[in-house]
Amino acid sequence: MSETVRRHYELYPYPQYPLLASVRRCDTYASNLSAIWSRFNGELPHKAARRILIAGCGSFAPYPFGLANPATEITALDLSTRSLGRARLHCLLHGVRGVEFRAGDLCDPATLTGEYGLIDAYGVLHHLADPAAGLRALAARLAPGGIMRVMVYSSYTRREEESIRRALRLLKIQDVAGVRSLIARSAPESRLRRFSDASHEVAQRSGLADALLHPQVRTYRIEPFMDLVQQSSLEPLLFAHRQALQDVQQEVVRIKRMEQGRRSPGNFVLYLGRRTKGAAPDADEARLLLNPCLAGVVGPFSFGSVQCSPRLGRENPVLDGAARRFLSRFRRPVRAGDLSASERKLAGEFCEALFLLRLRPDAPLP
Fold first, then answer.
1. What percent of the chain has pLDDT over 90?
2. Which residues contact 332 (CB under 8 A, 6 or more apart)?
3. Which of 8, 59, 203, 251 could cross-link to 83 by cystine, CB 3.0-4.6 Å?
4. The Methyltransferase type domain covers which part of the protein (predicted)?
5. In the CATH hierarchy, which fold is given to the domain comprising 3-155+219-273?
């Protein structure tokens, strides 16, 4: 990344969540390494792959990842020492231990060592001078069977921000105070005022700066994004943005149709894999196991209904008392063939939601 990007995040650490802001562990279910690995490999990660890299971690992501993976080695990498300091403090205040915080450039081969079973690059590639080189650098650190999640800005989702950013550059407005002054003086029906009123980001300095003052941003339509993915030699596995179709190619076709009407499903979120084995089939001998992040939800002292935040592009089923009692049976591995037809159907829905892990018959059990 460029020095200007580093300076930007030193000045505006992002995101600027309150330090006391907490996350329910059940909402981190899609950040659990065992769950993600089993989704695309049909087994639990082997010992060498039990490492997570958060590339461009910012000031918050290490906390939910640490919450989801308390016994896993996690490296939180960022250019900004100020962002890392805030992320470290957030973890400390919420009792999250075991995260290694490292300042450095993800494109520098000397920054990282070894391979990782899960790499998260959420909102990072579109801030690189050479996104293809950055993605290849991360791909080189992915273990066989490893998973990488990426998010990049969609051109049509970011249309308003990019128009405003261009105008601010022409006006030579380069700081938050200048932007806020312009917003205050803008007409109620202006593009700037409409954006300001509709966006939750602009209420904080870091959010406004990230949206409108970032020195290095690019956006993607779906074809250039998939070309970028192809250059990495990683396999696209699953889109996880809003209402995404399960089949990658079908989702690409759907997005192309949307883009013809200058629309988008939102920013693109995609899971990539390196020589993954594929999901375990729904066979009688398959073993089903509870996602560790839901252990507290199905415990004997949990009451009422719970709905976990959507992380894979679709709403999750509500976990009422009956659903929680059903899920509690999978604290230990359960053979799929031992379930009734209706139970197996329900278990399949929970596997799709990643609340249950489906393991191959020959996969080692915990």
1. 95
2. 289
3. 59
4. 56-147
5. Rossmann fold (3.40.50)
| 103 conformational bin, left if phi > 0, alpha if psi -120 to 50, beta if neither | beta
Please state the rounded mean pLDDT for residues 345-359. Answer: 98
Please provide residue 149's backbone torsions phi and psi, each rounded to the nearest 5 degrees: -105, 130
pLDDT digits (tens, 9 = 90+) for 170-179: 999 999 999 9
> Is pLDDT at 301 greater than 80 in this prediction?
no
Spatial separation of the C-alpha atoms in residues 317 and 321, rounded to whole Å: 12
187: tokens are 């007409």
Q: Which residue has the tokens 């059903």?
A: 326
Beta bridge partners of 118: 52, 147
How far is residue 99's CA from residue 65's CA, in Å, rounded to a whole number? 9
Confidence of residue 1 (pLDDT cuts 50, 70, 90): low
Q: Where are the domains of the chain?
A: 3-155+219-273, 160-212, 287-359
Instruction: Please report, to the nearest 10 degrees, the dihedral formed by the alpha carbons of residues 229, 235, 238, 244 taken in order.
Output: 40
